[in-house]
Amino acid sequence: MSCWAVTVIVLLGLTLAVTKGNLYEGHSLGDSCLPGRSCTLAFISDNPVLLRCPHAYFSGIYVSWQYLDPAWANELPVTFLHSGGPNWPLLSHAKLQRLRFKSQLVAGNLYISSPSAEDSGLYICRVGDATVAYYHVDFQDPGKMYVSHADLGATTLGNTSAELENGAQAELFTSWSPWQSCDHCGSSGERKRVGFCYAQVAEKDHPVENPLPCGIVRKKFPMLPERGPELRVETCQVPCDTLYLHDQAGPNVVPLLVFTAYHPQLKAVAHLRCPTSSIYSPVYWQEGPTTLTHLELLKKNSSQSLDKATGGGILRLSFQNNSHSAFYQCYVNGHLVGKFFVASPGAMPPPGERAHTYSIIEALIVGLSMFLVFLMFLGIIQSCRRKPGSTMV
């Protein structure tokens, strides 16, 4: 077995421990989120998020998460997830049941795999009987996202003003996150940053309020105009030096490789999702040795496109003939995390790639066999262990 296959076995063993290392802190114009203090955050829907619960990492402490929809008048926050074992709280709201289904605790922190805009609201973390975190969260709809590429001459959205109820005035603008690192080094790449819709409201006889995410402001002022988030992309080129490699070795690095084969029918559409990617992380795709950039795909009307909701984390392919056969690779933070073989029925990969595929399958089989042998060995030890007060015959 090749050295590469052995590496895959080791990486597979680390998958569960490492894939939860992707932390998304959200975006806020106010102060940083401090323990026990209210914090307002904006996120993009359809991308995984993690809300931190201070002091929850101590083992044996009961951790619970509560949720309150701003539309639920005269109601208190409801516990929908806790660390108390299999007895889950009864939930009367179908919305809370859906939220619990796509959420999990990661060292006491709340991880939501695919939040929707309807999941906006107040999230509270309690450790024991103490409330340690309040998050007013606005999940903004990526379906309304405005995407602009600097190299196409596109500009970002400008500020707009609006008249609201009772003579209030609002200014809508985009609050930008920092630029992400270049998606790869050594050749021309791309980088992106995410913009969140914020509004600043001035009411008669009241001082100007602090800017808040548009979804939160709209709960109080329904006449606030619709404005979505933004995604800004530009080309970049950085050397593969020590500084770049160090930037890619942070907590978001996931040593995980997923291999999948697709055999779509004619006129079908396939969506290839890059593992562990999101709009908050640098991601790029390759078709064979060719890099698929936002710029090139925006220039031409092709059968390939990058999903804007995840910032390119999903590659969309449409098939117009029966002879399509290609390998696609995706990278997150400069690391290969996904490989996809896409072919019409009957198409076969090139011999070199076929051998590469067999190496992956071999690694999976060997890894599973080692795990089963380990379980059998533990079972034998348990059956032979002498219990206190028993007599060996």
Automatic annotation (TrEMBL):
Which parts of the chain span the membrane according to its record?
Answer: 358-381
Principal localization reads membrane
Signal peptide bounds: 1-17
Q: Which UniProt keywords apply?
A: Glycoprotein, Membrane, Signal, Transmembrane, Transmembrane helix
SUPFAM superfamilies this protein is in?
A: Immunoglobulin (SSF48726)
Q: What's its membrane topology?
A: Single-pass type I membrane protein
Cited InterPro entries = FAM187A/B, Ig-like_dom_sf
Subcellular localization: Membrane
Which family does the record claim for this protein?
A: Belongs to the FAM187 family.
Name of the protein in its database record: Ig-like domain-containing protein
